[in-house]
Amino acid sequence: MEASLSSGRDGTAAVSLDESIGRLSRADALQSQEISLSLQANVRQRLEMVRRALAAIESGTYGACVGCKNPIPEARLEALPETPLCVECSA
Ligand SMILES: [Zn+2]
Description:
Blueprint: H1 2-59, H2 74-79, H3 87-90
The chain binds zinc ion.
């Protein structure tokens, strides 16, 4: 009786340890999936901005803010060539 109780306790401890490891790795997997999904979303969003910038270059409107229609400063276009907005409008 005593032996089975203590072995039962050992078994419980081993199971709960495994469960917490399993939960951790599941959380890790979910987190890295979320990170890669948000990275993919960022890349897609940036690609879309680049496409729009290229279309703006073709139509001659590139470099003008789509928000306020003012010219976007060159320094900003050098840092973020695909941005459709000036600093004020993107804030
Ligand atoms: Zn603007």
